[in-house]
Amino acid sequence: MYLRTTFFALCLLIVIACQHEPRQGDPRLLIENAFILTLEPGQTQPVKGYLLVDQNGAISGLAAGQPPAGLVVQRRLDAQGQWLLPGFVSAHSHLWQSAFYGIAANDNLEGWIARLYGVEAPKLDASQLYQLTRRGATQHLQNGITSVFNFTYTGADRSGEVDRQQLRGALDAGVRVVHGFNVRTINDSWTPAMARERTAAFLAWADAQPETGRYLGTMLAGYAGFVSASAGQAQVEGDLMREFSLGNQQHYLESVVDSAGERERYPVLEQAGIIGPRLIFGHFIHSTPELTDAAARAGVSMSWNPMSNGRLGSGMADVLAYRAAGMKVGMGVDGEASADRADPFENMRMGLYQVRAVHQRAAAMQAYEVLRLHTLGSAEVLGIDAQVGSLKVGKRADMFLLDPRAFTPWQEPYAALVFGAGVKDIREVFVDGVSLAR
């Protein structure tokens, strides 16, 4: 009798244990007791509660208070009051530049380009570009950046291998990426037909990669706005945008020296069909009120890169005027060769303090605004805001936990975060609810 009773008791314990053992289909992650800054429109009040991630990496629950009793999950994390934020989005990065800290330290853009692109970059082969891209993407993740627009380097390569290796480097690091594809300079030795063939081949290859969720698509990393570009360059880029439904991000009006000539190319971009909602102007520093209004009316957006612009002495983008004109604005940390740190906290502070100093008014831009620009605002510029940029049920669980003790006690959460926090305070970074950095 004793043995039979003991046997049944043991079986009962096994059944109970199995009922509470996480299984494949259970939610992937529960973070409880968190101070959640969602960055969702209209929800500026932080939520003291929990966030639940389903087995596919989407946010399936977010609410104040405690999670439902008896919830079985694959990982349960007690945040103990740590802050939970959406991952930063960099609308403008060069991941391959992760080996060039401090290069051309006292040069403006033109001297910097001559050193980096004229001397150093041509030495790199496809395998080196893979390693540098993966390193840059890893550093982005460690600093809380979970989605990125990545400008790639092509150089003299015509095979497409450098393009493939740079996309693989980003994906293998785990970051979510919009791939910036180089058409290459159109001339007698590189024809529109060759550019089209290379573009089509890359897009077919990229679409076949297994990371369908983290590969967010390809945009052109265009040259058509440069003073050195031909009208044929603009036409090819416009044709490729239409044929393959591609966006285009141009480095435009960054250079003090070339800005007048680049402004004169605006009608060329219009005639080629490049100007419109699928175009992003990177940097966009030396605009005019007339050009700003025209671009805003056409639906063009821009990426603000204050650390890089300051380091290279390029100037300051008038983001207040751009936003007032109705232009969407995001932020990018650019490359380690020109900003030297893929640091969104420093980038926000640099931009915010520049605006306040130039306008001599502290209320010209608020902490919440610049935080939004580097999260949901950048996602909107890249057209990925349905997936990332804020914490909301149905969106991807791209986020990071931050320890607030370094800036506690605080008065107002967004000001304390933007003014006082740094990458050193990040404790864990997630993409799809999977921990990638801690």
From TrEMBL:
PROSITE patterns: PROKAR_LIPOPROTEIN (PS51257). The keyword Magnesium does not apply. It comes from the Bacteria. Residues 84-434 form the Amidohydrolase-related domain. InterPro entries: Amidohydro-rel, Metal-dep_hydrolase_composite, Metal_Hydrolase, MTA/SAH_deaminase. Keywords: Hydrolase. The keyword Hydrolase applies. GO terms for molecular function: hydrolase activity, acting on carbon-nitrogen (but not peptide) bonds. Belongs to the metallo-dependent hydrolases superfamily. ATZ/TRZ family. This is Amidohydrolase family protein.
